[in-house]
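TEACHING EXERCISE
Course module: macromolecular assemblies
Task: Read the component lines below, then compare them to the predicted structure of the full complex.
Student: A.B.
Group: 4
Components provided:
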Amino acid sequence: MVVVVICLLGAMEVSSWYVAEYIMPSPLKVARAIVALATTDYTHVLITLGRLCLAMLFAMTAGIILGLVMGLFGVLRSFIKALVVIDTGIPALSWILLAVFWFKNPEVRIFFILAMILLPFYALTIYDGIRGLPRDLLDMIESFRANRTQVLRYLIIPHLVPYVLTTTKAVVGYAIRMVIFAELVASAVGVGSRMGLAQSTFRMDQVLAWTFFLIVLNISLQAIVAGIEKLGLHWRPEATVR
Amino acid sequence: MTVSAHNPGLPPIIELNSVIKEFGSYRAVDKLSFTVAKGEIVALLGRTGAGKTTVLNLIMGTLAPDSGRVMVAGFDPFRQFSALKGKLAVSFQTDRLLPWRTAVENAELGLLIQGKPKDQARTIASGWLARVNLAGAENKYTHELSGGMRQRVSLARALAVDPELVLLDESFSQLDHVTSHELRQDFCAVAREYGKTCLLVTHRLDDAIEMADRVIVLGPGGHVKLELSLREAATDETVVGRTRSQIAAALGEDTGKQQQNEREE
Ligand SMILES: Nc1ncnc2c1ncn2[C@@H]1O[C@H](COP(=O)(O)OP(=O)(O)OP(=O)(O)O)[C@@H](O)[C@H]1O
Ligand SMILES: [Mg+2]
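Instructor-supplied answer key:
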């Protein structure tokens, strides 16, 4: 990791000697921009983070509910499944354009875009998780005459926790890229719109500084999810392949 | 074919009356009738595919008979499914423990489903874990336990709900001979001490002879082929030998030979 970072910085430094500043600024300049932005523009990072968390929480909740309904209620299954499958086929760009036409409020636009993009991931994993429910454990818990809520509480929900965590880990990076994209198009505040501004004013140092923030954000969110995973799945034996 | 109850004085806990169960056109259980009285330990023997698990599922209430009548503790286990809450517990061929729960959390599961308060359930469950020689392993997760220990947790989970009837489906077959023997001894001691009614399903002759008061041999096609009381035979070596060959014959020659090989190993 450290080696890779040093190599990248070296390459930036060397290329900055030969090309104009708006194409590749020197690392020192970027570092100064990072410090400057961190002191003056950190609210934009918080706004982006807030939007991201809100939308992810919603997508997670709604996706879990849809997945449960798909998995547990035969009547609604094919209907919801068709909706979810169609949703997965719609490109992110379509949702962004639709959101811009449908909603005026930028917060609603961004929330809508992210929710529509992230929701099917959760719905489909939960559905898969329910289909992967071990039959023998279900028979066991039913032999004790557990009612539906008890089956949900003692078997289905704990069984689904790893599925939700794995999906979250896989989706965080994608969600960050999407929130930036959505902000660039749909909002005047947030990291995405700031990056657009920096680009239009030829401040390549700021564009790279924002990129740096996003990388850090991604790494820290991944670490947080991994930490939660470690806490929540401490019962799971870690297999190591030799 | 009707088999008389072991102890006609008490109402039977399990009562099957000309039960038929078909899967498609295949008749897995054919006009099966038998009863199990309170406090009895009965072994249901049969070769693979004889319909043992199917009978157990009928008694558990997860399957409905096509015709005939199944009664457990005075209830129809399929139609009055939840009426048997706390009256019946099953220990399966595999331990079927929940991997995200510790030993004691698994053992208390049945009690929590019954609606017992948490602390009370915990106390009872730890008591049962101690009784199956697992004191000290309460807070271990299933992957930290050996196969034999897991099977013990599963027995503790079944016994903790204080059921009238314990069903065991090949619960000891997967363990090595020594562990399986130990566990059978432990289980029988506990079952007799608390006067539990047990129906144990097995394809192993030795398990049956060692544990049961009575043996019911299920022939292919799912009907009773032989029914023997073992109580008086238990002490006399020659009688044991005769009983063994009698049951082996009922199970069919192949199985008899197989059992012999198993013992010679
Ligand atoms: N759900 C089912 N659908 C169709 N056929 C079934 C089903 N369950 C069992 N059978 C058939 O019924 C017969 C009896 O099966 P069962 O599982 O009761 O046998 P078993 O005596 O428990 O055998 P084993 O000792 O191998 O466990 C078998 O021939 C099996 O193929
Ligand atoms: Mg079976």
